[in-house]
Amino acid sequence: MKFFKLPDLGEGLAEAEIVEWKVKAGAQVEVDQVLLSVETAKALVDVPSPVAGVIARLCAAEGDILHIGAPLVEFEGGEDDGTVVGKVLGSSQVFEDHFVAGAVAAGSGLTQAMPAVRRLALQLGVDMNGLKGSGDGGLVTEMDVLQAFEAQGGSHNEVLKGARRAMAKAMTLSHQSVVPVSITDEVDLRAWRADEDVTVRLIQAIGVACRGEPSMNAWFDGDTLTRRLFDEVNVAIAVDSKHGLYVPVMENVAQRTAADLRAGLDRMIADVKARAVPREMLQGATITLTNFGAIAGRYASPIVSPPQVTIVGAGKLFEKVVFVHGEARPVRALPLSVTFDHRACTGGEAARFLRLLVDALEAPEK
């Protein structure tokens, strides 16, 4: 039998969730025919077959979370213990089976599981004894433990998957590695039209502010204590959907027109709703924008997503009274919150960036 294993999906991704199988056991498939769709921390990815043949068995079910190198499909025929080379989006890797210390030999009467799986079971309070493994030779997998964890807690336990799982991991990484500091200000919107496109104006202003204070448009490597400044401003837009939080990227925003930005936003939102965001739209961000005020809230402490060093948060528009030549006048205001990684940016750099951001937003549209 030949096994096709989950190939390397690139971008340092270690796992993927099976969203939908496109084939069934017994099916005849051709080279490059799509076998299944998986969701990673970056996007939905179609996985094609690297060979032509008959599928003997699907090695995982929809909803399972698999690590790179885990068996996906068993093909009929071929040599025993063979491994089929997987290829996705030009990235390929051959996975070979090796003996791993800690695995229990089949027929020993003991529950077979790798040390990492046993550690997970211990952390979740799952009793390994009696668990039926779904892996090769009855090996208990991480998914077997997670399913047992859900079953023993009823509706109180939920294993995070998809975008929500990716968000949880990203927030853990940020908490462990970023030194966050937040500063706030308000934008006087007297120069704005009543029908002003808030999100487009925010994106344009971020482009202006980053060009004037390039240190806020950077990636920071905490291990080597190096900072890389970027010429282009690529803004990740936080989009909250029923499937979780997605952050598609708009590239080179400082060089794009308002109409082009709006068209890009419309396409982005449509892709998020359809869960069809291309992988290339989830890569290469240098700064993030979260327009949480579209839902509620004036100020926040947005979370920096490393290796980026800055995130801009826009709150809910509100009215306030200002004095002009001693006369009280009502004006609309836009609250802004900027969080920056203090390991990479000084307080002065962040304050200058915020000042440029406010100035760009208060200026009449060109």
From TrEMBL:
Source species, domain of life: Bacteria
One of the record's GO cellular component terms: cytoplasm
Pfam family, one: 2-oxoacid_dh
Molecular function GO terms recorded: acetyltransferase activity; lipoic acid binding
Residue stretches making up the Lipoyl-binding domain: 1-76
EC number(s) stated in the UniProt entry for this protein: 2.3.1.-
Domain Peripheral subunit-binding (PSBD): 112-149
Keyword ATP-binding: no
Family designation: Belongs to the 2-oxoacid dehydrogenase family.
Assembly and binders: Forms a 24-polypeptide structural core with octahedral symmetry.
Full protein name: Dihydrolipoamide acetyltransferase component of pyruvate dehydrogenase complex
Lineage of the organism: Bacteria, Pseudomonadati, Pseudomonadota, Gammaproteobacteria, Aeromonadales
